Amino acid sequence: MGPPLAKRRKIQIQYRDNKKNKSYKSRKEQFLESGQRGFLATCNSNEWDCVKECYNVLNQYADILYRIHEGEMKPDFKKQTEQRDADIEEESDTDDDIDIADDLQKQIKASKEKGKERFQVVETGVSKCIFIKTILENPVPLATHIIEDILKSKKQVSRYLIRLIPIQAVCSIGKASIVKAATRICDNYFQTEPTTFSIVYNKSYKHNIDREDLIKELATLIHTKNANHKVDLKYPKKTLFIQLLKNLCCLSIIDNYMKYKKYNLIELARAEECPNMVETKVETEKEVVNSAEKIVAGNAAEIKFGDDDEIENENAEAEKKIACEKEKLTEVEAKNTKDIIKSADDY
């Protein structure tokens, strides 16, 4: 049997007054800023469900990759933790006579830093476009681990989350700032052996940036690192990804962007197999010219062993082939800049 009616009414009034007087502190909304790094996610409809899936996927694979629970942390987390602990120990050794209140404040501050979230959603100002910032020094290894695991297991890990692209740099929208940010991240990827690359340029709003001029300058920047880098729009090994949002630009160097279905998690789970990325010898126009010249040289060396008429006919055909291929080579060199400007469309 419940309490009397009068007492029950008194409890209800007291609960209502407490509820009115209680101050609920709303969580401060965070926005995307220059200098951040993280993951750019796209969704089809429900953004909040997409955010939940991002948290689940990133935390699940981060725990596996960095082994937080087992204490075997990778350099990204281990370096930050060791540095923080060293700073605390150094402060405690130098200041032995420190007040208890100051010591307590330092412990509270250290515990807050230790409990800082690895992944936090921030507002981008673009519909169906979500940015998850991270404290990781480089988000690319984690994204690659997620992509490769989905490709291997063929297991769909998301329903609303479509694409998950690692972002290494965020800068303001401007040609100078974009080139500066690209220079900083390209030093670690293109100062190596020759490779194939492409430039993907996407935008969510209209901006006063000449797309062709920007891509030309970025392609020139990559070639200054190594002149032997080649443009490959079909299956490049490295892709300079550029995404222009409302007032900021996201940049990253991504491996096998086209092979991994433009980092579309749903398409990767459904794909039967990815295109063969085994290196095959592709004969370029220059190699064709060289091979044709070798035919002429070989025929001239063996002229005393064969029929003169046959050798002359082969030489004439080879010379025609050289002239034809040289014309093609000049056309290719003329169109080289246009080929660089082409980029994969953002679905």
UniProtKB/TrEMBL annotation:
Residues 87-96 have a biased composition (Acidic residues). InterPro entries: THUMP_dom, THUMPD1-like. Residues 308-335 form a coiled coil. Residues 76-96 are annotated as: Disordered. Keywords: Coiled coil, RNA-binding. The keyword Zinc does not apply. Pfam families: THUMP. Residues 149-255 form the THUMP domain. Residues 76-86 have a biased composition (Basic and acidic residues). SMART domains: THUMP. One of its GO terms (molecular function) is RNA binding. The keyword Ribonucleoprotein does not apply. PROSITE patterns: THUMP. This is THUMP domain-containing protein.
